């Protein structure tokens, strides 16, 4: 795997983590947008969808989302097989 593929794999992991948290809490992008607005964070439903599906967002954004949806604990998923193999090489 080259550097770009590694970054894409981690982005995909981030995407899955946030999506699974939203699904677990039963929260749509629309509801997330409203909850973030209450925290003073202006993100439209479509912007949230794009940002999360790309998996390109800051750690601060991820923490904001977890706070907005009431996540007290998270379980970080294991990297997929290809990413694990690459990480073992380094």
Describe the 3D structure.
By secondary structure, the chain is an all-alpha fold. The chain has one domain: 434 Repressor (Amino-terminal Domain) (Orthogonal Bundle). 69% of the residues lie in helices and 0% in strands. It has 5 helices and no strands. The protein has helices at residues 3-25, 29-38, 45-54, 59-68, 81-89. Helix 2 packs across helix 3 (45-54). The radius of gyration is 14 Å and the shape is globular. The chain starts with a helix and ends with a helix. The mean pLDDT is 86.
Helix content bin: 55-70%
DSSP strand tally = 0
Provide the CATH top-level class. Answer: Mainly Alpha
Structural class label: mainly alpha
Task: Give the count of helical stretches.
Answer: 5
Descriptive labels:
434 Repressor (Amino-terminal Domain); globular; 90 residues; 5 helices
């Amino acid at each position: 795997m080259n550097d770009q593929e590694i970054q894409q794999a981690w982005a995909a992991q981030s995407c899955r983590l946030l999506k699974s948290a939203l699904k677990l809490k039963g929260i749509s992008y629309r509801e997330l947008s409203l909850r973030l607005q209450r925290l003073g964070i202006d993100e439209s439903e479509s912007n949230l969808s794009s940002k999360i599906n790309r998996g390109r967002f800051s750690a601060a954004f991820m923490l904001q989302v977890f706070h907005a949806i009431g996540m007290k604990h998270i379980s970080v998923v294991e990297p997929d097989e290809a990413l694990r193999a690459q990480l073992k090489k380094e």
